[in-house]
């Protein structure tokens, strides 16, 4: 058990997800103590904010990773391949859009944290940058949601086609094996969709979207539960991948 945990937390991305869970746990505790012990609630909220700043420092330069993702994807796939197929085109456009939105999200976050460290003499409107960065995060999450919903639709379509193929010579063993694979894939897509929904609560809150559309704000409890759900799902999915690896990432 200990060796698995060490292997899991050896990745910087995994450590960030653990910090994300702790961050949202402090936010939830702050919400639960409101009206009961306001001083303790404010202390928990300050811890939440400190972890948030630390995570931004921890992810310094993360915007460069999105550029690397685009370059790697261009090397692995030919954009013209199957581009006449609508599902393929939607997936491709969604993937690249997510990278672009996340690039600007992380870039603005990096600018804010570098400015807070005193590297820029020019003053920035941090509130405006925060709204812009989380608006890009919201767009990225919504685009991801479209991507996974489209993949989920394709999964059900493949299962329907497979049920027709069993009449054309497919053995029962092959049919059961492929159905299990499709079912496992659906579970993963379901987890990923729930993760996105959890992150949307935080992203939309900090982008002030509820205030502009509904003239209200999400309470801390809702945002915290969304963040906890998202981080728990991310940790679970990543831990299952780590369990299949022979070499741990450094």
UniProtKB/TrEMBL annotation:
The keyword Membrane applies. Keywords: Membrane, Peroxisome, Peroxisome biogenesis, Transmembrane, Transmembrane helix. The chain crosses the membrane at residues 99-119, 131-149. The keyword Membrane applies. InterPro entries: PEX11. It comes from the Eukaryota. Pfam families: PEX11. It is found in: Peroxisome membrane. PANTHER family: PEROXIN 11, PEROXISOMAL BIOGENESIS FACTOR 11. GO terms for cellular component: peroxisomal membrane. GO terms for biological process: peroxisome fission. The lineage of its organism: Eukaryota, Sar, Alveolata, Ciliophora, Intramacronucleata. This is Uncharacterized protein.
